[in-house]
Amino acid sequence: PGRYARSLASYRYGPATLKVDWALDGPIPWTDAAARAAGTVHVGGGEDELVAAARAVTGVGRPSPGPAAPLPERPFLLLGQQTVADPSRAPAGKHTAWAYTRGQAGLDRAGSPEAHVERMEAQVERFAPGFRDLILARHVMGPADLQARDENLIDGDVGGGSYAAGQLLFRPRPALIPYRTPVRGLYLGSAATFPGGGVHGVCGQAAARVAIAEARLRPLEEIFHLD
Known about the structure:
The chain has helices at residues 2-9, 33-36, 47-58, 82-85, 113-127, 143-149, 202-224; strands at 16-24, 40-43, 77-80, 95-103, 135-141. By secondary structure, the protein is an alpha+beta fold.
């Protein structure tokens, strides 16, 4: 229906994403022993650095976001070490890893991909000296690549939309039950609904509960002609 469609048209998307996969000649040599054994590592530095990186990505705290900016000098990375959790992911003695970071919408137009990747690898090198020497190969996917692979990832937005202001709670539009759509039997359970992409599976679980509850009420609707 038109009213519902128009409300979705104002939905705001989140930051763009740049992802790199690495083939490595050995495990990442983190200076912190706990990081060497972790399947996922959050690479960001101190509190001030995290805040600075977030502001650079979202534009919060700056007079005007202006055109798309390159990655922060020291970007925040979410890094996965598949072979730490499962050694069978690579040949004996070799390792794999991936990392992604977020940038302003239009990141593809803000400097070269090589420069962005250089900043990502420099950030890992800070906390794991010798990391660059282990890189055998890399595969890079920018925002446009991610969207080409999955049309739902608008400009590489893997978070299911912006979490700024009211959209943190009211996703994808203000509604008491955001999982229901005007189309009977059609429900929305993606990260575009509350509570978002940071709590994997909860959106789908909530949508399923609504669908089950309404399915149980349908026999009553038919008896009393409630629809």
